[in-house]
Amino acid sequence: MTIGKGVLVIGASGQIGTELVMALRQQHGTANVVACDIKTASDEVKASGPFELLDILDKDRLYALVKQYEVSEIYLLAALLSATAEQKVMPAWKLNMDGLFNVLELAREGHIAKVYWPSSIAIFGPTTPKVHTPQRTIAEPTTVYGISKLTGERWCEYYFNRYGVDVRSLRYPGLIGYKSAPGGGTTDYAVDIFHKAAAGEPFTCFLNADTRLPMMYMPDAIAATLGIMNAEAANVKVRSSYNIAALDFTPAELAGRIRENMPDFRIDYAPDHRQAIADSWPGSIDDSVARKDWGWKNRYDLKAMTRDMLVNLAPESIR
């Protein structure tokens, strides 16, 4: 089978996929980037290039799309996230693991040249150092999502070492963007809070006011994803997954930044089952290895991110 130049984004209707597809189409050309998901994509994604329905667990359908579009690279974003996965344990494990195997096997068999698969700070657990968590450290996750991501990291490294599969990965922190709704993650309060503020509504946070977590604005997450995939293979020295970081803050600190732009914004706190998940994760991440190996660098701090989110969601409401 001849490998072409097509790019397949699986999970294109999710928080990352929606924006990653558009960035990849600018880079590779609209016709060369195929958006796929088990549910329909945004109007923007469907209007700008090809879209195909795909269940990542359907190996035959996946292989057919790879052949049809002469795919060279796959970005596998389909997954059940942390809070949702705790409610759907076995479906989450099956989706998160079997989907990865289906893609890795395509690469091992020579049908595609490069794989991107995201990991997460969820691989860490309560025994992990919480401040400036290093690249290599104790990883004892306590959630289904975290266990599946840590397992996936080990398989990615194995396929690289054993079969030479060019697989690349980032451990995303919490991601914040305005183009899609929250997707079931423990850090998604930091998305929902902006939508409530933009609507002029108070926000009830499901985490404590002082819960510090690593976060990243979506433009930086997209830049990091493209950065590692465009890097020379020799510079990608970690084939499990790289720590990346940009911001860390608490709900109270984020609310304070929002009030600088919208003084009437109100927040209260009602921690639920997601608090225990957040408590098991780091408060800040050391990403010096990614910065050294392939030049990762974030652009947005908390002030700039907050302002940009509100400009895009409620430009008439901010001062």
Account of the protein in words:
The chain is α/β, with parallel strands linked by helices and 319 residues long. It folds into two domains: 187 residues, NAD(P)-binding Rossmann-like Domain (Rossmann fold); 110 residues, UDP-galactose 4-epimerase, domain 1 (Alpha-Beta Complex), CATH 3.90.25. The chain has twelve helices and 14 strands. It has a six-stranded parallel sheet, with helices on both faces. It has a three-stranded parallel sheet with strand order 6-8-12. Helix 1 crosses helix 8, helix 5 runs parallel beside helix 6 and helix 9 crosses helix 12.
**Rg estimate, integer Å:** 19 Å
Q: How many runs of DSSP E, i.e. beta strands? A: 14
Look at the structure and give the mean pLDDT: 94
CATH architecture of the largest domain: 3-Layer(aba) Sandwich
Q: How many structural domains in the coordinates? A: 2
CATH topology heading of the largest domain = Rossmann fold
Summarize the structure.
The chain is α/β, with parallel strands linked by helices and 319 residues long. It has helices at residues 15-28, 43-48, 59-68, 82-87, 89-108, 144-163, 189-198, 218-230, 251-261, 274-279, 288-294, 302-313, and strands at residues 6-10, 33-37, 51-53, 71-76, 114-116, 119-120, 166-168, 170-172, 174-176, 203-205, 213-217, 242-243, 247-249, 267-269. The chain has two domains: 6-173 and 217-230 and 239-243, Rossmann fold; 174-215 and 246-313, UDP-galactose 4-epimerase, domain 1 (Alpha-Beta Complex), CATH 3.90.25.10.
Write the layout of secondary structure elements.
Layout: E1 6-10, H1 15-28, E2 33-37, H2 43-48, E3 51-53, H3 59-68, E4 71-76, H4 82-87, H5 89-108, E5 114-116, E6 119-120, H6 144-163, E7 166-168, E8 170-172, E9 174-176, H7 189-198, E10 203-205, E11 213-217, H8 218-230, E12 242-243, E13 247-249, H9 251-261, E14 267-269, H10 274-279, H11 288-294, H12 302-313
Parallel strand pairs: 1-2, 1-4, 2-3, 4-5, 5-7, 6-8, 8-12, 9-11, 10-14
Antiparallel strand pairs: 11-13
